[in-house]
Amino acid sequence: MSDVTAQKKRRAPEPEPADEVQQSLYAKREKIYPREVHGTFAALRVLAMVVLLGLYYGVPWLRWEGRQAVLFDLPARKFFIFDWVFWPQDFFYLALLLMIAALSLFFFTAVAGRLWCGYACPQTVWTEIFMWVERKIEGDRPQQMKLDKLPWNSEKVLKKGSKHVILLLFSLYTGFTFVGYFTPIDELGARMFSFDLGPWETFWVIFYGLATYGNAGWMREQVCIYMCPYARFQSAMFDKDTLVISYDEARGEPRGKRKRTADRQGLGLGDCIDCTLCVQVCPTGIDIRKGLQYQCIGCAACVDVCDDVMDKMGYDRGLVRYTTENGLKGRPAHPLRPRILVYATLLLAMTAGLIYAISQRIPLELDVIRDRTGLYRETSEGLVENVYNLKVINMDEREHVYRLSASGLPEMEFINRKGELTVAAGEVYNLPVRIRIDPIHLTRSTNEITFHIEATDAPELAREATSRFIGPVD
């Protein structure tokens, strides 16, 4: 047979089916059924869930001096937090608060890993309550898996349907509560039951409700693994002395199943009995025995269940535990390392600064703007005149009468100035002011003057603002 004939008889490899190629590129999500776990860290997660959800759902209903205690009134541009009333001019406090929040995240991550993710992240908190509802209706992990494998029947429809109805109603109430921080919640409830909600309020109730339902009811660990950026850059904040959840490989390997009364040393086995319970309780479905992974949210469910297994086997606890990389290798820990001290110092300084700034905050603003149509004007009497526009903002909750004065140059004369200003609560009062002075008192072309305003009924409400008085060139 010639070479040409042999080549003709050779067949080209069969192309891989399109669906198999797709399957290799886009793995289908496998549903995770976290087993219920009890223990110290589980109790802490439940406590955090109760406190945080209690605050979220309860705070809008608190009353303070005849109004909602916490209300962000966007149309009125007022933000009520108990006895404080903040305005857009107080944006500085919000910026400082966000900086403190970011620094707190860095600090606690450097100290103890993903504490935020495991105990306080909204995704974790709402997923916990959703899984609790799921277990109450469908049962624990084995019952849920069995139910999902059953063909659709009346029992499955009833359980699945009732679960999703409860979760959807709970999610919509979550959206309602969210909008209640921006619209008085009692008024919002009355308008909702009378079908009189505005378009934006309706949109945000539905949007936030469906977002909660989708994230905590369906996507769950997918949000943590794929959507949350924190999982990707957390390792930059870890070091060898950061507390993380770890499996003690030196103690646990080689793993293997055995009876409780078996001699593990005689069998040549470590403490891990390969029960896989640490995998079954993990809400993201990872195996902590493979080492620290970015999918780990630090919930410590594997610690609780492993300690329970160790107790039943008569072994020491801590096969899976909070520890450091240095601790696993028997090296001394360094809790007070430089980055921790820097984070702690900055955090304390910024927090103290925010508390001091708010405690010394004066609910009064005075802005002075020079008239830009001309540098100055000479009157028929030979005086030099500058024009200013004063903006007085009363950020207090009651009306005040203010007295205005100016200093900085001798014998200044106010023109078109009212003796006292009555400014209502929340009012922005604009007042044009002319100041005249004899040029013999001007030693240079640009002079600094100071406007001072003070409430006649509350001397602690006082503000100063500086501006320039421009006269003839030297």
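The record above closes out task 2.4. Task 2.5 opens with a second protein, given below.
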Amino acid sequence: MKRVIIIGATSGIGRALAERMAASGNIVGLTGRRESLLREIAARAPERFRFVAADIARPEATEALERLVAALGGMDLCFVCAGTGDLNPELDFVREEPAVRTNVWGWTAVTDWAYGRFERQGRGHLVLVTSVGGLRGCAAAPAYAASKAYQINYAQSLRMKASGSGIVITEIRPGLVDTAMAKGDGLFWVMPVARVAEQILCAVKRRKRIAVVTCRWRIVARLLLWMRCWE
């Protein structure tokens, strides 16, 4: 049994991971902005779930996470799934700001918090959900693509820092997933959340450094990296 924290657990990938981790016999700590959804998830298996509502874009989020760890009696595995983004070809900063605040400022705050905790205890597994969308710019969603590129580079930095420390860093790069985050016309290869969650957990079990999910999105990821070489 592991003590698992899932940051961004109210919907999408985070919720799917939470339900599967609990079904596997783990104790799971849930956090997200919407307390009503956290209560709904926790009510399905009260013996397996603990929760605390927190917005990672606010400074007090790490204090809430400390309370959640205390309720679990520790933390062995942490998933950082929280994120947001919107289509914004007009470059309206009001629509860009949430992605910057959540995907950069808030994401960094909770990622550093989790890494610091694992560093103090000398072990732990940190799973960072980034995106294939961070491998190249996107005219329709500039802040989202740029913030995911930031996360990809930050995850690489943490892997370098964690070398020999007992801390495992796994970066997950999903393609398009059937969640509210998949926006726009003409979308292709939109993957079911359940399949994505299963492949993430397989990568975590194998302690992979980087995993693109689902498997077919590895083709797109390689193509995007190749295109960057020729720009």
